[in-house]
Write a structure and sequence with these properties.
Blueprint lengths: L11 E4 L3 H10 L3 E8 L2 E9 L2 E7 H7 L1 H6 L6 E5 L3 H7 L4 E8 L4 E7 L5 E7 L3
């Protein structure tokens, strides 16, 4: 059997309302919203991008219309993303005001990292390798 030729992996995060999440990524972290799909009076789906890094958000309402099987799963728990950055202190400053779930620490694998929640409750751990 031939292995699949994986080109990239893009997380899809689900939320009740996308607008606060989009604001977080665009205003705090400098991403651009490159795709927006309306869902009634709100945004149902969005793609955010910066320097080749891509992230998708989809509303629960949009997911329910999209696929019945997966729409039940998106409500289970928040997602966790590990995000490597060039400067962890700059990332902490950029995300100031977000709920901290992991205070700044140095890990056994020589990374300096901290974790926050986005407006939808997803957890993002920002890490700078070899920063300790």
């Amino acid at each position: 059997m031939k292995a699949a030729d994986v080109k990239k992996i893009t997380p899809i995060l689900f939320a009740e309302q996308l607008e606060p999440c989009i604001h977080f990524w665009t205003e705090c972290l400098g991403f651009q919203k490159i795709v927006e799909v309306p869902e009634g009076d709100n945004i149902g789906f969005a793609i955010l991008e910066k320097n080749g890094v891509e992230l998708m958000y989809q509303s629960f309402a949009s997911a329910a219309k999209d696929n019945e099987t997966t729409s039940k799963a998106v409500h289970k728990e928040p997602s966790f993303l590990y995000i490597e950055v060039a400067d962890v202190n700059a990332a902490m400053e950029a995300t100031k005001g977000a709920e901290i779930v992991l205070p700044m620490r140095t890990t056994f694998y020589n990374a300096k990292e901290f974790g926050i929640k986005d407006p939808a409750g997803h957890v993002f751990i920002f890490a700078q390798q070899n920063a300790a």
